[in-house]
Design brief:
The chain is built from 4 helices and 17 strands. It has helices at 28-35, 75-87, 173-182, 220-232; strands at 2-9, 12-18, 45-51, 59-65, 96-101, 104-112, 115-119, 141-145, 148-156, 160-165, 192-200, 203-210, 214-216, 239-244, 247-252, 261-265, 267-274. It has a 17-stranded mixed beta sheet that branches. It is globular, with a radius of gyration of 18 Å. The chain has 276 residues and is an alpha+beta fold.
Length: 276
Amino acid sequence: MLRFSKMHGLGNDFVVLDCRSAPFALDVARIRALADRRTGVGFDQLLSVEPARDPACAYYYGIWNTDGSPSGQCGNGVRCVAAWLHRAGALALGDAVRLESPSGPVTVRLLATHEVTVDMGEPAFVPARIPFAAAAEADRYAIEVDGATLEIGAVSMGNPHAVVMTHTLAADAPARLGPALSTHARFAEGANAGFVERLDRDHLKLRVHERGAGWTQACGTGACAAMAVLRRRGEVDESVRVALPGGVLRIDWRGPGHTLWMTGPAAFVFEGEWLD
């Protein structure tokens, strides 16, 4: 029997496991079985709340995709972890707490019971840190995908992202190009493929195909990545609303040399027991 919490952030849904007193012990086959939306519970990512490895952090959270592969970061997921810790009595409203992710520490603060702001760190544009194969760092890269040449921005928010402006694409192109871009050979660890429309200097519209999970209702790190790429190009202001299929996130970034903040909701759906 495995007790879990089902949560979501703007429709990006999670199974959260309490591993604070017992180690995480699911293998890839069991993660995939739990992820199945017909015969399991169903989720975009599985989150484990564990003791911190880093003594400067309060807790560690692990992240796994539906295919059982590990992920370095999850923006909607960390907000759900923060809300989960608050309900467990481990995080008070208004307190700033350092949490440890697979890609490093982040700071979270509960603004309200179901609203969380997160310091996601500074976006990384150096190709080797993404990782992305390129001769030199640039604002734009040309990349061949499924017989087409795309112009992308590449950035890491603790996980790799490819950002594509949709104004140059046919309406049906993202559905075809998203999966191909997520598995492109120039991204050594795969990438989350974000297709973004700039509605105004403070308003973006975004869809993301996540590596290991597919199209999702929302992608927190994808929203951060899209804003960061366009902010670096001077195309958006330092505070931006990002509209995703599941709802809206606010992203704040002053620019290089500063950390980026993401603010949005986290919701509980139900508690359950998986009889495996």
